[in-house]
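Suppose a colleague, Dr. K., hands you the sequence of a protein chain of 606 amino acids and asks what its three-dimensional shape might be. Before reaching for any lab equipment, you can write down a predicted structure in token form. Begin with the sequence itself:
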Amino acid sequence: MSTPALPDQLQRKLDTLPEGPGVYLWKDAGGEVLYVGKAKRLRSRVRSYFATDFPTSARNQLLQRLISDVETIVVPSEPQSLILENNLIKEYRPRFNVRLKDDKSYPSIAVTVGEPFPRVLVTRRRNIPGARYFGPYSDVGQLRRTLAIIRRLYTVRSCHDDLPEDRRERPCLDFHIGRCQAPCVGWQDEPDYRRMVDDVLQFLEGKTGDLRGRVREAMIAASERENYERAKDLRDALRWLEKLEEPVSVEVIGTGDADAVGFARDGDDAVAVLMRVRDGRVVGREHRFLEGVEEETDPAILSAFLVRYYVPAESRARRIVLPFPPDDWDALRELLPESDWIVPQRGTAQRWLELADHNARHLLESLRIESFETEERAEDPVYALGRDLGLSTVPRSLVCIDISHNQGKDTVGSLVWFEAGRPRKSEYRKFKIEGPGQQDDFAAIQEVVTRYLTRRREEQLPMPDLILIDGGKGQLNAALEAADRLGLGGLQFASLAKREEEVFLPGRPDCLRLSRRSPGLRLLQRVRDEAHRFGLAYNRKRRTQRTITSELLNIPGVGPNRRRLLLERFGSLAGVKSASVSELAAVPGFSTRLAERVLEHLQTRT
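The predicted structure, expressed as tokens, is then:
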């Protein structure tokens, strides 16, 4: 694979990279972070991206083309590079890194143990100093039941007073209805309140054995005092605790505590499940969907989940049961040196792992079914589309081509690829239309079809099962003509017209109108809309680049290469205008005189 020519600034950085461990950030010409990675040896790892033996996937080729700069941060050890990498990924959310879906969407329970009189809160962020967090809860109903049982059993305050500094003259309504013992007026001291909070923490950790005994005793005592309302609340709480103790599986699996991590993957989607086992019973399940994983290995994905989700988690068990060794195995174990990391082959731990893996497979299948968000989820939209269009092959791989322009300018083509009804973004393609297609939609479609199919045939890549054209019968015929000239007339084509959502097929004189409730039509609409969105984004980028460079076109002595160097160094026209003469003169090919001429020209036009 031939690698693109590197900017001089980037080449100089590659020549002076440090040798030790650290983190590197690939950036594009605009300074946006594309990818954050870690390395045991920064120099060899970063330079490997431009070696001849670097993997030649479409994703890697795209990353190489976009790279314009690199930033490195040196750390003392490899485990610290894992932590820094995690923090930077959360900060920048780079497009080429593995992403944890819905990273902040699920709520957690926070116990503010850093306060003298802690509170129990529901939060979606983890930014309360000194707090302990439990969750996140993907099942909001379970979170509500957990909070209800805490309120029935314990009199934890719900106010936001800064105790003990803030004092009230009279207690609030919670005291009068038995929900608080009024520490705000000094009627409950801090040691007594702390003992109650310790019980809350044990309950949230799943250690409910001793708690059930205390609740039963309190229920009997309340009944003997004829406080029947309190006894009823305790009875309901006891029933809920006993239900919680029922194992998720048919039987109790062994004894002891463990955190079992299950893993399942399908193409560009993956899910990791954390099963919390306490005293041999499953007391909680948490999970995270992971996106953008198609180019990553399973050990790398598992490592990303552990670093970003499990290592910062609260209430970890001593034993961590894994399906296979993750990347950075030794560094991960250094981050949690008190934990026992095991990959079981038999015994109780293997049964915990089987349960976690089973849950992971179930969740991934649920994701695939629910992602279509149709009322008729039982029917696969891909099969429904093949049946509705009368196709000879089920369109498991489906591409859509769209043409975007701005009043005949900046004409571009976009192509999106869907696999089994889901977007496969590593196969998305953009086309700058350069021929007669700049003014003619039909010619633009022919150019995109010709270039795309020729490239796939030359690289011996599989052809899509169905090629969808955004447009009517004329656009479809243009695409068919291009395919015929290449000798690929046997491919399946269709077009979708926007106004009435009419489907046109080769050899059929009239259009096909599918039911608005048809899963096949909804899939076509989703693919068409995604191609339109992708094309518009590229069109705007081209238009912006043209606008930025237009003011540089008329400067004597500044040609295409020098314009490119200016934009690579300063990122935008505003960056060039705000630069000093010495900064401009430092750009390769620029003298002090030419730098003064550039600034003088730009200042006279503002």
